[in-house]
## 1
Amino acid sequence: MTLNAYIPVLLAALSAGSAFGLSKPGIEYKIFQFPADKIPCIDSRTDDWAIVPDSYAVGTDQLIETTNHNAKVDPKNLDIKVKVGWVKGLNRLYFLYEAYDNFWDMRFSPTGYSNDIFEIAVDGDLSGGQFITNPQIKDPVENQISFSGVHAQNYHIFVPPVNHDWCLVWGCQPWIKYLPWANAAYSYTVKQGESGKVVLEFWITPFDYAPFEGPEKAVESKLEENRTIGLAWAVLDFDGGGKVDHFCCLSDTNRMVSDASYLCAFRLMPIEKWLLKPVEAKWSFKIVDMAERKVAFFDESVGEVKSWKWDFGDGTTSAERNPVHVYAKPTGIYRSSVNTPALYTVVTLEVTGPAGTSKTSKFWDVQVK
């Protein structure tokens, strides 16, 4: 995929005041938002990714050969295509990696790397800086346990793995590569030394803080629409000589593997409009003051909306878009479990626009004493 494909995204980001300054200043890649009813199944099949436009694909032409004076990668030797996705409400990054190689090195070596590697590094909160070694920490054990991979993470993913785990986490937290924090599946028919195609499908969870102690003290990166994260990958191509023959990076330097300041900018995109209904009522709420039974309601409807009608379930309504409502003191309504007065309500939002009308009710979500 050529750079021209990113120009519309670049212009939009610049007009919105997006802050660049990672590995490729002025270039921003896109992460596709999957609708909640179309989350990819991790089975190494590409069917789930058919809805992802080609404009999201990052191909071989975006890689540079860092072991050969930043030369372009020869697609006859190695040709890859990567798509990245996310789902609103889940702090997961989904990947589809399709690779053709003219020589798959798939030998098993218990003492070191022996087969090709898809290496990704992610910095979910753009904290930047080194994340594998800290020169200020002199003790190597302390450096590993307290620093490596804590604020950004690196995954050495074997493509494909032979007699070993699916990836190596370059950091102090190997637990991040297992469920419920990650999952992977492969599809391939090639054998040692052959040419051919390998398909890898996986998802990972980025962390703002991932300590060696385990997930109990970890902090997931919060993935939100239009947010920019740091992300990059490299392909370590072994052609049978016992060493890395080609180190191909999406970043403009192989320092990306250990320093988050050299990752690339990736934006978590909104859902493509063609995947949305023309108009759909959606809403959320927050209890502002339980003692006063004050509740704030928020319109999150899809499509062009001209009017709103809220029914708060207590005989009152509102035409505001985001109303704040105070419920009267409930009488004769009880929580069955604790036998104390409480108000269970059925709240409905009806929206109308040029494309029509939509209504959504929620049963007993709003509960005030």
## 2
Amino acid sequence: MSNIIEVKDLYKSFKNRKGEVKVLKGTSFRVQEGSIFALLGSNGAGKTTAVRILATLSGADSGDAFVCGFDVSKDAHKARECFSLTGQYAAVDEMLTGRENLKLVAEFRRLKNYKSRIDELLEMFSLTEAADKLVKTYSGGMRRKADIAMSLLGDPKIIFLDEPTTGLDPQSRIALWGIIKSLKAQGKTIFLTTQYLEEAEKLADFVAVLDGGIIVAEGTVEELKAAFKNIEVSEYENEMPTLEDVFLSIVSKKAVKKEADKNEN
């Protein structure tokens, strides 16, 4: 498979009252077309910053990023035509019905003959019965489904899902996992950021761990487990580590090294 996303040496800093905060410090990774790619990291690791740069919502200080072969800094308009973005919070209008939200997006995108596509998406996300009810009556899981359905209008090749299951109950999370898998089966590329390690373990074809502004580990779930098979995971011998065990081992080792370097200075 070819790479549909390529990121090389991204740097990004922000200024606050305390001065400059370096978020990305040479981040590099690739995403294969038709795969589910999970970018993992603790709060503040830079996951959303990386997504915002790829989605042309923010510019990098330096480095290169390509989406569908287009440089996101030089060909932002062309890059936007091949992806959709769903953020951490559902971007739906509560005072409109589910169907009206979809219609609004379709008209904004100037899509033609969109009614059948809206019906198809409502059915895909099990929202047909609630389609003509106000979104303010929807549960959190239903709002998230409507949000993702809206992002699929226009048939994007890449779907950016920035922590899509944050705040959802377990049943809604599992339902959304099924939808993500079905999107991959349709040939979509899914770029997923999440703090839920179980989520990445269940869904991802490839995982990259972002910590301290750089990618500190990457590979398939099985490759990462094999690489860290000797870490202590439980009282049971010969038990393979979970992805959560691997992640915590990586992050804790980085934290220990950082503290040691600080003490030496």
## 3
Amino acid sequence: MLFPGWWGLALAATPGELPSLGLAALFAVGGFAMRGAGCTVNDMWDRDIDGQVARTKQRPLASGAMSMGQATGFLAAQLAVAAACVVPLGWETLGVSASALVVVGLYPAMKRVTMAPQAVLGAAMNWGVLVGWTAVQGAATLGAAVPLWAAGACWTMVYDTLYAHQDVADDTKLGLGSTARLFGREWTRPVLTGFVTGFAGLATYSVLAQGLAWPAVAGIAVATAHMQRQVMTADFDDRLNLNARFVSNAQVGGIVLLGLAAGRLMQEAAPGLVA
């Protein structure tokens, strides 16, 4: 959740300059709090089913180590920290940030009513792109950040579908939806290859439209190769293999960020092609 926020800051930075370190630090704290809040909401929704899934049965609410009252208090504290990070950035940024709460809150319910909850997760996990852009450029030109947000959503579809293959047996038993179940073993690789391609196309369009220098495109190319390697080397019968690919996406986020930052730094002080 943090990397997309930093992507938004880098995309919105002034040509010839790096993104603000102060804003990056604020986003780190706020992103940590919001990611935690998302996990708390998810565990509150899923407390009755987590105990029936091997991977999640030891979560605090599922195991009984924490009560719903305690979880509600913890959630309130997390949201307060996140709000404290956003309020100094102005009302426009606060509004864009607050709108993410609807998506975050709905995500846990989606597995009960759709076979593709990862689509909603992708929207939520990458909302930081929109927040980062707004914090620097304001909401009037927010459309310029939408392609990068959509690219991030494709990225999430890849890593969370691979991750969800760990739970296919339990999800099938409980009647819960996931793209791992929807695509199955036969179609997961070709479909995710399509999402990898979507990531590459949308992210590349985004940086070219904003006039970033070549390192931004190079970073996207390296990240794309990393993602495709995950898809092709995933072992759907090996939890450690799938978890390792999930965790390695911190590298994808970092590679894209470095490319964006370098691309803005090396860009001549001229406006992008998209306002």
